[in-house]
């Protein structure tokens, strides 16, 4: 099957250095507007992968994101936001990057070219058939990711991927591929731009939808969020006030006692029922 790496194609724009700031911004924004439309076309693929992820997590499994460079960093960002947003353990969604933690801030030369390290990194977390591994690579050609997914398949571990090229080697390796075809980048080959935006949008969709399916959202509120700063404490108080139709003082007292929005709401509701 022919594989065309559209993320590496020549930009639709040229002589960028001759453009004014306004022209640059307008052109970048014009390209960015095409990304949500590309994501929309991939919704059926995203749904299929999410169905698998929900099934795994409901049965005690975990989500692993595996990537290199920008793709790896995006996976780590998404994974790291799950505990504070949804109150889940830090090891429920895990982001791994080629080159290890130092690669989060600095490029590690040739780390993405390893055909063995991706699986080794997964093994450090005692990966099992209960888990799901999602490889992230804009190009769809990153050896660190591709070969890890192939080994996962051999071990009957469910695999998915997020890529921005159609019929890439990564898509062929993944059981549940997501292909968001964004086309050429504004700066030729700079896949941190449209491809990176597309990956972030898909990651948002995956974890948000999975956590809602797991019951981590009530109505439209993050009732299990960690109260890790004053802003979030204030948000928690307002959630309780709105849900229970009580005063700020009452809501604050509940939150100080139960340390959790959901627990506060349930305790108050159950208490009212008992008094009736």
TrEMBL record:
Which Pfam family is one of this chain's hits? Answer: GKRP_SIS_N
**Signal peptide position in this chain?**
none
Instruction: Supply the PROSITE patterns for this chain.
Output: GCKR, SIS
- Catalytic activity as recorded in UniProt: N-acetyl-D-muramate 6-phosphate + H2O = N-acetyl-D-glucosamine 6-phosphate + (R)-lactate
- Residues forming the SIS domain are 53-216
- Pathway note: Amino-sugar metabolism; N-acetylmuramate degradation
Per the UniProt entry, the Enzyme Commission number(s) are: 4.2.1.126
Catalytic-site annotation from UniProt: 81, 112
| InterPro entries per UniProt | Etherase_MurQ (IPR005488), Glucokinase_regulatory_CS (IPR005486), MURQ/GCKR (IPR040190), SIS_dom (IPR001347), SIS_dom_sf (IPR046348)
Supply the Gene3D superfamilies for this chain: Glucose-6-phosphate isomerase like protein, domain 1 (3.40.50.10490)
Molecular-function GO terms, alphabetical: lyase activity
Q: Which UniProt keywords apply?
A: Carbohydrate metabolism, Lyase
Q: EC class of this enzyme?
A: lyase
Q: What does this protein do?
A: Specifically catalyzes the cleavage of the D-lactyl ether substituent of MurNAc 6-phosphate, producing GlcNAc 6-phosphate and D-lactate.
- PANTHER family xref list: GLUCOKINASE REGULATORY PROTEIN
Quaternary organization? Homodimer.
Anything else of interest in the record? Answer: A lyase-type mechanism (elimination/hydration) is suggested for the cleavage of the lactyl ether bond of MurNAc 6-phosphate, with the formation of an alpha,beta-unsaturated aldehyde intermediate with (E)-stereochemistry, followed by the syn addition of water to give product.
In the record, the note on similarity to other proteins reads: Belongs to the GCKR-like family. MurNAc-6-P etherase subfamily.
Q: What is this protein called?
A: N-acetylmuramic acid 6-phosphate etherase
Native source species = Bizionia gelidisalsuginis
């Amino acid at each position: 099957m022919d594989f065309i790496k559209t993320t590496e194609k020549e930009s639709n724009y040229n002589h960028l250095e001759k453009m004014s700031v306004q022209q640059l911004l307008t052109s970048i924004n014009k390209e960015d507007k095409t990304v949500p439309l590309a994501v929309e076309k991939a919704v059926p693929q995203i749904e299929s992968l999410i169905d698998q992820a929900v099934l795994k997590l409901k049965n005690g499994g975990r989500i692993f994101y595996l990537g290199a460079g920008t793709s790896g960093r995006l996976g780590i960002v998404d994974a790291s936001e799950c505990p504070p947003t949804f109150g889940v353990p830090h090891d429920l969604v895990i982001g791994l990057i080629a080159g290890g933690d130092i690669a989060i801030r600095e490029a590690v030369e040739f780390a993405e070219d390893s055909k063995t390290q991706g699986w080794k990194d997964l093994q450090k977390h005692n990966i099992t058939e209960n888990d799901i591994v999602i490889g992230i690579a804009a190009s769809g050609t990153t050896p660190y990711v591709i070969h890890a997914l192939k080994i996962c398949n051999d071990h009957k571990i469910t695999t998915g991927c997020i890529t921005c090229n159609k019929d890439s080697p990564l898509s062929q390796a993944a059981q549940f591929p997501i292909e968001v075809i964004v086309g050429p980048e504004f700066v030729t080959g700079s896949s941190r731009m449209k491809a990176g935006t597309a990956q972030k949008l898909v990651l948002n969709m995956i974890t948000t939808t999975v956590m809602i399916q797991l019951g981590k959202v009530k109505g439209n509120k993050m009732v299990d969020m960690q109260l890790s700063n004053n802003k979030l404490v204030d948000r928690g108080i307002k959630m309780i006030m709105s849900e229970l139709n009580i005063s700020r003082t009452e809501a604050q007292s509940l939150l100080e006692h139960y340390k959790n929005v959901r627990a506060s709401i349930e305790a108050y509701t159950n208490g009212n029922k008992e008094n009736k």
